[in-house]
Specification:
globular; 2 domains; Hypothetical Protein Tm841, Chain: A,domain 3; alpha/beta; 13 strands; 25% strand; 4-stranded parallel beta sheet; 6-stranded mixed beta sheet; Rossmann fold
Length: 281
């Protein structure tokens, strides 16, 4: 039995990588002013970065259920005996999972929807774990369980220049946003149970990077890590080197956040995703 993987564009997978792994990617909508498109298709992170620098208000929209219905019925899924595992960003941050679950009810074949409760590189780790399980011959439920285990073993930490975009999008509470602004400090944020919560506040970018490294280093038996950013390639490369040193010299790839994530984090965001190989309790 074949299992195909579906995810959304916030995972930040490169198109050629997704195609090579036979992953179907559902794009998130991104818009500002008269511009309205799909991330990874019409709009990339550099477009959002320029819009933010032009002081445009950038918004995002979840894919409509019809996009999932069409994906689940697409030619790639038409092989006899094909099941689908559909893995998406946190349902606490987006209605994408809900749209996938609705569409799954109308799919001709079996669709298992997994809420990763993560975003960005963390979601990418989960998708890649699911692909590995599918390639090993696992059935749909086993692939979905591999994804859930990978999600439980993955942590995402990040810092932003300010909290205004996250506050405006309802992704963080107003009290945390007001505190960060009032104290003129940089917030260190993390995903906990699918929600963005404040870990701490620091005074400088250097201290923010050090704190991200500290958090990455606390991960039990870290198996892999990645750094993401928007408009800060030099700082991201430096952070990747710091994380690599903390984790014993392993390779830490660097990439840009997806356009939809960029819309909510703003320019200068730095993030670290770390996956542990320790058994999940």
């Amino acid at each position: 039995m074949a299992v195909r993987i579906v995810t959304d564009s916030t995972a930040g997978l490169r198109p050629e990588s997704a195609a090579a792994q036979r992953i179907t990617v559902i794009p998130i909508g991104v818009s500002w002013g008269a511009t309205n498109g799909r991330e990874g298709v019409d709009i990339g992170p550099s477009d959002v970065l320029q819009a933010l620098r032009d002081r445009r208000k950038v918004s995002t929209s979840q894919p409509p259920p019809l996009a999932f219905v069409e994906a689940y019925a697409g030619p790639a899924m038409a092989e006899p005996g094909t099941d689908i595992v559909s893995i998406h960003l946190s349902g606490e941050l987006s209605g994408t999972v809900a749209a996938a679950e609705l569409a799954a009810q109308y799919a001709a074949g079996r669709v298992v929807v997994v809420d990763s409760r993560l975003v960005s590189a963390g979601l990418a780790f989960v998708v890649e774990a699911a692909v590995a399980a599918a390639n090993s011959g696992a059935d749909a439920e086993q692939v979905a369980e591999a994804a859930r285990q990978a999600a439980a073993a993955t942590s995402v930490f990040f810092c932003v220049e300010d909290l205004n975009a996250l506050k405006a999008g309802g992704r963080i509470g107003p009290a945390s946003a007001r505190l960060g602004t009032a104290l003129a400090v940089k917030p260190i944020l993390r995903l906990k149970d699918g929600e963005i919560v404040t870990d701490s506040f620091v005074r400088t970018t250097r201290r923010a990077m050090e704190r991200l490294c500290e958090l990455a280093g606390k991960t039990p038996r870290p198996a892999r890590a990645a750094v993401v950013h928007l408009g800060a390639p030099e700082r991201a490369a430096q952070l990747a080197g710091m994380v690599s040193e903390v984790l014993g010299g392993q390779d830490v790839p660097v990439g840009e956040v997806s356009a939809a994530i960029a819309a909510h984090t703003g320019e200068g965001v730095l993030g670290v995703a770390v996956m542990s190989d320790a058994p999940v309790a």
